[in-house]
Every structure is written in structure tokens, then in C-alpha cells.
Design goal:
CATH superfamily: HAD superfamily/HAD-like
Number of helices: 9
Order of helices and strands: EHHHHHHEHEEHEH
Shape: globular
């Protein structure tokens, strides 16, 4: 298993950062925001803020890299990342704005977060589905990204957020058992494959044992 972690909306609170640019709070716009449960894109918040997508990009760009390095980490961010790194090879995959300051800010954030000035375990780009493989798991707050990743042959876990229709008290605590099961199932498959390679006459099956037939 390889874990691919989104950053905005999973590790850091992008919505709060956007709201600060407009002098408001997520709580203030939450009731007004028309949530489309099929996907989450930045474009869906700008009408609620009384602006345009282009205007939002410009506001972000005016802040420079500091907009991205200053986003507030969620309380679970460190624990989640450390758990994922122990469970499997883990990489950040994050979508940028059209401006290079975003790339610079995101990279600086990742270096600061991991404490590694030479951190390289990341990809910056919007087409995350290009990373889809049988054993790759994407953790993302966008239904659109998750759906595209699965359709391309990977696995995906939708990270719960109010704007994707899954508001919970602790998003990490909600998906942790799902990732744990994926990890366990993978180890079981590997064990089965090793035994079957050693003893091709045996055919082991994952799942409940077959029912006994009396007589």
C-alpha cells in the first residue's frame, strides 16, 4: 500500500485561510454556502464570498507564499501523517493555483511540517488520477478527485468535511479504521500469495471460511 495525502482540507484549513482574505469566517458562510455533494472545488465557495474565482486567485497571489505557509494545521495533522508514514510509504499530493508563489509556499509548508529541509516526497499538480495504481490510496477532501482516482484504477478515501457533505467532529478518527483495514487486507493478500507460490497445490481464500457440510 502507498498512501497519497492531499494537503488543503486534509492537513491544513484552506477554507479558514480563504475566509480571512474576505474578512469572514467559515462559520459565517457555512449556512449560505450551497454545497454540491458531488464535488468540492474552490469555484463553489466564491459566489458565497461575493467574488469570482479569478478574484480569489488574485487575493491569494497578493499574499505570496506566506498564504500557504500560514494556513492553520488541523489538530490531527501530525498524528495522521506519522501514522500513515508508519503504515506505508506516504507522499503529499496537492493541487496548485495558477501562480508559482503557490508552488513555493506549499513546498515551504511541507518542509516546515516534516522538519526536513530537503523534503522530496511530494507531487504538486491537479491531475492526481495519474498516480492511480492498484495499491495506491488517495486521501482527499474532493469527491471529484476521489472518483477520478478510483476510475483510473486506484483506491480513494474521501476525507470528511462539511463542504463535501460529511461533517464529523474528528475527520481523522473517522477514516483511520478504513486505512487500517486496507493495510491489514494488503498484508493478508501478501501472505496468501507467498504461501501459494511456495505450495501451488494450495489455494487460500481471503474471507470467511467455507461452511461445513454435514454428512
Amino acid at each position: 500500500m502507498v498512501i497519497l495525502l492531499d494537503v488543503d482540507g486534509v492537513m491544513v484549513d484552506l477554507i479558514e485561510g480563504i475566509c480571512k482574505l474576505y474578512g469572514t469566517t467559515p462559520q459565517a458562510i457555512k449556512e449560505k454556502w450551497r454545497i454540491d455533494s458531488n464535488f468540492w472545488e474552490v469555484e463553489s465557495i466564491t459566489p458565497t464570498l461575493g467574488g469570482t474565482t479569478e478574484g480569489l486567485w488574485e487575493k491569494m497571489e497578493s499574499e505570496g507564499p506566506s498564504f500557504w505557509t500560514g494556513l492553520r494545521e488541523y489538530p490531527w495533522a501530525k498524528e495522521m501523517y506519522e501514522w500513515c508514514c508508519r503504515a506505508a510509504p506516504t507522499y503529499f499530493v496537492t493541487s496548485p493555483t495558477p501562480f508559482p508563489s503557490c508552488h513555493a509556499g506549499k513546498l515551504e509548508w511541507m518542509k516546515n511540517f516534516t522538519g526536513d529541509p530537503f523534503f522530496k516526497n511530494y507531487l504538486i499538480g491537479s491531475p492526481k488520477f495519474l498516480c492511480a495504481k492498484k495499491e495506491n490510496v488517495l486521501v482527499d477532501d474532493s469527491r471529484k478527485n476521489c472518483r477520478a482516482f478510483v476510475e483510473a484504477g486506484g483506491k480513494a478515501v474521501l476525507f470528511p468535511q462539511f463542504y463535501n457533505g460529511n461533517e464529523v467532529e474528528d475527520s481523522w478518527a473517522t477514516i483511520k479504521p478504513v486505512l487500517q483495514k486496507m493495510k491489514t487486507d494488503k498484508h493478508m493478500r501478501e501472505a496468501v500469495e507467498k504461501v501459494e507460490k511456495w505450495r501451488p497445490d494450495l489455494k487460500l481464500m481471503l474471507g470467511p471460511p467455507p461452511k461445513r457440510v454435514n454428512g
